[in-house]
Design a protein that fits this description.
The chain is an alpha/beta fold. It has 2 domains: about 40 residues; about 325 residues, Ribonuclease Z/Hydroxyacylglutathione hydrolase-like (Metallo-beta-lactamase, Chain A, 4-Layer Sandwich). The protein is about 25% helix and about 25% strand. It has a 9-stranded mixed β-sheet with strand order 6-5-4-3-2-1-15-16-17. Strands 7-8-9-10-11-14 form a 6-stranded mixed β-sheet. A two-stranded antiparallel sheet has the order 12-13. Helix 1 runs antiparallel to helix 2. It is globular and about 50 Å long.
Length: about 350
Amino acid sequence: MNTPIGRRFCWSSAALCLSLLAGCAGPDLQKREKEVVRRLPEQATDVWLLDVGQGSCSYVACPDGQSAVLIDCGSSAAGATSLPSVGRWLSDKLRAASSATVLVSHPDKDHISLLRNKDGVDPSSITSLYIGRSQTEYPRAFTDWVAQTKTQAIEFNAGEFRKADTRFACGAAKLDLLTVNATMNPQTGELGSSTNADSAIVRLSYKGNSIIFPGDAEGKTERSALENARNNNLDISGTSLLLASHHGARTETSNSPAWLNAVSPNAMLFSARVASSYHHPQCEVINRAAPLVAPVDSSFDVECGLGNAEISSLAVSSRILGTNENGHILARMTSGGTKIFCQKMTPACDEQLSDAELPR
């Protein structure tokens, strides 16, 4: 059973069988039991791209079976999923982790609204927290939530870059901080005040796979990330899965051709609700991205905005994914590649998620 539930059953079964035998076979088999149980979770890094409507919420189950990373979690317009159910689902996952890190790309509501005490993510298990921009820019509900965690909110520096950033513990998987607070850095010539442009862009990699989380990055953010990667000899091309900048917006040159071509993603995901007032993703961005990602066997329709408060749809035949079409999405990274599981299937998905695995 190649699902989180199936894997847990297999690990538990292995541990149970070995435990029963250990009572008869002594300390050598007990040692073997611990080795098996510890090694089995190293097979995969699971990344959940949760359907929170118009917003972003990504949960990483690290391959050590003990660490977890939450990258943003908020919504400004819920979709089909109950947001309290997402909060409960995440709280259960984070409570089970021995190390739970939260990365907040920037202070916008659709990236932090579930990081609050009421119907949100339980703060009691959070062991480390990093935020874009200054904490003074975050709402009171967020700072109250931070006060209930086991840590303090640590602000990033201006234009910060860290290759294999050890602040984010995730077993054998690693996170690179490509840029953050880009407009605050005079060295880049990008001085400005846009909250979106100061989004943290992070890259998660494991066994030759990679996923990029750009927050609400604008063109200047993407340029900063590309410059940092180039100056530090970090190859970010051939990305397995790219989350669209700013939910698929085209304003302020988000999702620029230079960025998409440099990252050259195998698949692209839009975390958005087209029927919201923002009409993300924009059809122009989907048209720009579709030729760059991997093809699929048959075409299917993707809803998108035209930029004039109208909603349209495009027929695509490439690996375009979105919470609007696919609901909750799981990207599983293993030595064999990145496999995409979807709540609602389209030709861009590999397999369907079971209802038992989903927030409800």
